[in-house]
Design goal:
Distance between the termini: 63 Å
Number of domains: 3
Number of strands: 23
Structural class: alpha/beta
Strand content: 15-25%
Radius of gyration: 24 Å
Shape: globular
Helix content: 25-40%
Number of helices: 15
Length: about 500
């Protein structure tokens, strides 16, 4: 009979409840009885821990005992004190170069090979806006192209409006405007976007001409623009927009799926609604899949900077160079300054859902979250929505809020998103499809309509992390080749385009 607890490291002074444990239950593998009811995914002390002593999980400090503890005590945020942990960044100490598979042994997927050398996993027409004032027109144009009207374009995966709330009443120059423009241009140029229409009002601060000049964009067969104030307003813009998209569809439909090397896959890594199992099954399982992908020449983007707080040293030690490692430290220092006086995760608090799922504080969550990146070297660190040009495992600075974070990754070139969850996420994204990975079997079975892979068999003792990692990698190839994810089938992803609102409104 499987033990009711999971031990992660011989040096740990806690174990994780594999199932719900009632007070008085004997834990024979550890030699104590549970002294309280312990929910699934939460922690029990395995030995006496004096007040102020470190609490160890993964042989890593996740906080300090707020009181004297004895074996069998239930440990959570009520008796684990969050505090800063001294870190040795150990820049590049553990870096190892990746052993790539020979080109002839690398996996292929059926994708859209673009003229610029990139490859798409989807072939879509995107409708973009420079300012929120154009949002309604964009929505009306995209709504016109329903399933029936797209039937004549079998090689097109959809027409999607990417609307946002910015573009005016904001700083005209500097980081906020640069970030918005960088995000929009990253989507317009995305390998999953075969053609794009950009709608503007005309008088907005995010001026269309300046935007195109700054980002090096120009109109052509696959990039069209309409300015509402110049064409006669809303109704006229809708009519012209529909015609423009019809023209784009003819061009985009000419592209067909052909074999593409897995080296063209760039996966954005996300986690949301995490629980005490996320760091034991879904996250490390995804990490195994990313190690496989990197060996095939592909890339992975770890993000959500506030959600690696406290464990950033585990990444800097894997950095390709000390300079790359320092970039990550610089971004973390920016967040520490940015979040002063604010009730954010940097203060140690996790969301109510994370807490209910067994995570006591941000250190514990960060330890699990970082495992999504696998074990290969950290090759580069990027700012939000910057184009990812470096192959292998990289980091992009983003907030922890999933739609905003994923938007930055997609703008940077991610043509797939892998999203782990323990509590259950209903997230989706366009134009890069989202694969959702459940950390535990009960949630997977409850939310099977939203989950693509169950990583719970790792917790149940039925599969290894290596087996789950291979399953994830295989599904990545199938998804990249056109197989729809659960979120795609449900039509989730249009509302999840959320550029980071970092500036001051005025």
């Amino acid at each position: 009979m499987a033990s009711p607890v999971i031990r992660l490291d011989t040096a740990d002074n806690v174990v994780v409840a594999r199932i719900e444990i009632k007070a008085g239950t004997g834990i024979s593998t550890e030699g104590f009885n549970a002294l309280a009811d312990v929910p699934q995914g939460h922690k029990l002390a395995t030995r006496s821990i004096r007040q102020g002593e470190p609490v160890l999980k993964y042989n890593t400090v996740i906080g300090y005992a707020a009181e004297d503890l004895v074996p069998g005590d239930y440990l959570h945020s009520h008796n684990i004190r969050f505090d800063n942990v001294e870190k040795d960044y150990a820049f590049s100490r553990d870096y190892k170069s990746t052993e790539f598979l020979p080109i002839e042994q690398r996996a292929n997927f059926m994708g859209y090979c673009r003229e610029n050398g990139r490859a798409g996993t989807r072939n879509m027409v995107g409708i973009f806006i420079t300012v929120n004032c154009s949002a309604t027109v964009a929505r009306k144009v995209s709504a016109y192209f329903d399933e029936e009207r797209l039937a004549d374009y079998p090689n097109v995966d959809g027409v999607v409006a990417f609307v946002h709330e910015q573009g005016c009443g904001m700083e005209m120059s500097g980081e906020p405007m640069d970030l918005l423009r960088r995000t929009l241009s990253g989507y317009i140029r995305h390998p999953n976007i075969g053609g794009a229409l950009v709608l503007s009002l005309g008088c907005e601060r995010n001026n269309l001409l300046r935007f195109f000049q700054q980002e090096g964009l120009s109109e052509g067969k696959t990039l069209r623009t309409i300015t509402m104030q110049e064409v006669g307003g809303t109704q006229a813009a809708v009519k012209l927009g529909i015609q423009a998209v019809k023209d784009l569809l003819v061009e985009v439909n000419q592209h067909q799926r052909t074999p593409c090397s897995a080296e063209h896959l760039l996966v954005g890594l996300q986690c949301g609604g995490s629980d005490g199992f996320s760091g034991l099954s879904a996250n490390p399982g995804l990490g195994k899949a990313m190690d496989i992908l990197v060996r095939h020449g592909g890339g992975a983007i770890l993000s959500e900077t506030p959600e690696i707080y406290g464990v950033e040293h585990t990444l800097t030690s894997r950095a390709r160079t000390p300079e790359v490692g320092q970039k990550l430290v610089d971004r973390m220092n920016w967040w520490l300054e940015y979040s002063k006086g604010r009730d954010t995760q940097i203060n140690g608090q996790v969301s109510p859902g994370n807490n209910t799922g067994g995570l006591a504080n941000i250190l514990e969550k960060s330890l699990g979250g970082a495992k999504k990146g696998g074990s290969t070297g950290l090759m580069e660190v990027y700012k939000y929505a910057e184009q990812v040009k470096q192959k292998g495992f990289v980091f992009m600075d983003t907030p922890g809020y999933d739609p905003v974070s994923a938007t930055g990754q997609i703008a940077g070139g991610a043509n797939l998103i892998c999203f782990t969850t323990g509590r259950g996420s209903c997230f989706g994204s366009y134009p890069a499809p989202t694969i959702k990975l459940a950390s535990n079997t009960p949630m997977y079975e409850r939310m099977v309509g939203d989950m693509d892979i169950n990583c719970g068999p790792v917790i149940d003792g039925e599969k290894t992390l290596e087996q789950i990692g291979q399953e994830i990698f295989d599904l990545i190839l199938k998804t990249a080749s056109g197989e729809k994810t659960k979120s795609e089938a449900l039509g989730v992803g249009e509302e999840e385009f959320c550029p980071w609102q970092i500036g001051v409104l005025g």
